[in-house]
Each structure stands twice: as C-alpha cells, then as structure tokens.
Amino acid sequence: MENPGMRKLGTFGIYTFDFEHQPAALVRDSVQELEQRGWRAVWFPEVGGREALTQAGYLLSSTERLHVVNGIAQIWQREASATHAASVLLADAYPGRHVLGLGFGGVRRPGVKPLAAMAEYLDELDTLTKESPNPAPQTPLRRILAAYGPKMLALARDRSAGAHTYHVNTAHTAQAREILGPDAFLGVEHPVLFEPDPDKARAVAREHLGPYLNTPYNIAKFRRLGYSDDEMAHGGSDRLVDDLVFWGDVDAVADKLRAHVEAGADQVAVQVIGTEPGGFRDAALAAAGGGAARARRPGRVEQSRPRFGRAPKGRGAVSICGSAARARPATMAPQPNDGTSRHFWRSA
Q1: Are 210 and 238 in contact (CB under 8 A)?
Q2: Residue 185 backbone phi and psi in degrees, to 5
Q3: Counting CB atoms within 10 angstroms of each CB, which of 96, 148, 182, 319 has the fewest?
Q4: What integer pLDDT is reported at residue 330 of this predicted model?
Q5: 310 neighbors 327 (Cβ within 8 angstroms)
Q6: What is the mean pLDDT of the chain?
Q7: What is the pTM of this model?
C-alpha cells in the first residue's frame, strides 16, 4: 500500500527512549531544538509508562513541522477503539505529521499469535474507520507495522503504509525491501555510538545489547538474521555487535548508516547510545554539526548555531538529519533543505 506522504519524513530521523524519563518541559525543549537543527522525524517507543498516543500529541503540539512516529504503540496496551479515536484526532489536528506505528507489545493474550492478533486489530481499525461518527481527516491517517518475518512484512505491505524494523542488520533491510516491494515504506532503527576506540565501543554496545540477547523473542530474531547461539553468548560476538551497533567517528558511522539506505530503507531512525540520560540530543546535534541548515519559511534556509556541543576536534561533522545540502565547505551558502537527498552535509 503506497503512501507518498511517508517520503516527507526524510532519509534520517532520531529514535529515542529518553522522552520516557524527561519532564515535559525538557521533552518540549528537546524536540524543538531537533526540529530547528533540521531533523525531520522523531521516533519513540512505548515502554516506560507514558501512553503512546498522548505523548505523540504532546510532541506534535510542541513543534511546527516535525514528523512524530510511534515506534511502536503496543496493540495489547489499548483497545482498537481507543487507538482509532486518538490517531484520527492526531491526523486531523496535525495533517501529515503523525505516523501510527503498531506492534504486538504489551500484556500478551494467551493463545493468540502475533500475526493473527495484528490482522484482527487492523480489521477492527478498518471497521471503526468506516463507522466512525467523527470527521475524517483531510490528510489520511498513516500507519506502519513493526515487522521482521516474511508474513508480518507482507501484512505490513498489504494493510499499512509499510514496515518498521528494530535492531536488524543491513542484510535484513535488503530482504525486507524485497518482500515489501518498491512502494511500501521501510523505516529501519539502528543504534549508533560516536566512539572510535574498538574496545570501548564494543563494551558500551554489549551493555546496550545485553537485554536483547537474553529475551526469547529477540534471540529468535537474531537467529533469523544469521547469528549462531555461540555468537549471541557472552555479550555477543564482535561480528554481531558491529552489525547491530554502528560505532566509530562521525564519518564512519555515517558511511555505515548509508548501507541501510542502499539496501532499501526509506528512512533510518538513528538511536544514539553511550550517553547520559538526555544526552541523545547533544550527540545528535554534534553529529549534525553546527552548520545544519534549517528552513525558516519556504524558499529560505538559514544557518543555525549549535547550542549543544560540537563535533570532536579534528573530525568533520556529518549531518544525518536528512538535509538536501550537498557536501561542501561550511563557508559556502546553504542549499535548500527538502529532506530528499541521501548525501550528508559535511562541515570543514
């Protein structure tokens, strides 16, 4: 099911857990700063107690252009009627800016398989759409599904705008694109760590991956990705760690992220790890460099100064915010930021 509006998210976005742990005022400041620096989309999960669609509404109300993606809202956390009512209101209030990402997290229902549960949930949502007494939004509601295996990816292709994957390698991205076909959207989350020392980087990456390497669902997923049980033991092999967490200086991380795009991802949602709580924003801004262009109004782009940190001395800063500016010295005039280029902006 093609949805051209999904292309407006740009090639790179931010994925973060941090909003679960920040007071509302800091969440507002964080998303406003990210928007000002050129990021097109912010993704967040539903894990720590904050209700997914209420939080999406707050992020949307705090910004003007930013796309907000539930990555994901858990289907067993709320009835389809509640999801429908909230998501239709967000689509009406913030045309084209909210993406409802759905997954089968939450309190499990015994005896119900995830694929069947998701199909039934989508059936309910579609029925509610036809029977709703509320005004239909002028810009259609956009939904995507968390999907890894062939059957769930096919369901995402046929019943939504596309798929969202989490902690996968680039080979999976290529396989997912093949199943989704050329039109469906594919959003790929990937953790990154701005640390060039291999030992330090892998130590942090293994700490991050630890919970995922000890849960049955994720173990099964990693097996499907081609990793043996031995590679998943003891914190993960170097191959597994390096495939699932991209680390290095900013240039190296940017090159690795491009591999997902080349494999078929429409957007890569970058999860910055290895920072103190709340530090993802500073790291994201440093990665984008102090010169990331931001649009004040159509047809005009200005340079904005960094408020939080710089790229490490001696290294170029690479924008992974989806800017359409071409590689050039920082002294050159900024180019229009339409979010479509797969080039990275690099400051001298």
Answers
A1: no
A2: -75, 140
A3: 182
A4: 24
A5: no
A6: 82
A7: 0.83
Structure-token pair, residue 48 = 């720590």
Name the more confident of 9 and 5. Answer: 9
How far apart are alpha carbons 103 and 241 in whole angstroms? 25
Confidence of residue 327 (pLDDT cuts 50, 70, 90): very low
**Which of 206 and 301 is assigned the larger pLDDT?**
206
Q: Cα–Cα distance between 275 and 257 in angstroms, integer?
A: 19
CA nearest 145: which of 112, 184, 106?
A: 184
Contact 209/237 with Cβ under 8 angstroms?
no
Token pair 């596309």: residue: 162
Alpha carbons within 13 angstroms on the beta-carbon side of residue 154 total 5
Phi-psi region of 89 (alpha: psi -120 to 50; beta: other; left: phi over 0): alpha
Beta-bridge partner residues of 69: 43, 99
> What gap in Å lies between CA 170 and CA 175, rounded to an integer?
9
Q: Extract the tokens encoding 253.
A: 């991380």
Phi, psi of 135 (to 5 degrees): -65, 140
Q: What's residue 109's pLDDT?
A: 73
pLDDT reported for residue 184: 98
CB 272 within 8 A of CB 281: no
Average confidence (pLDDT) over 226-235: 97
Instruction: Record the tokens describing residue 119, joined without a space.
Output: 């199909």
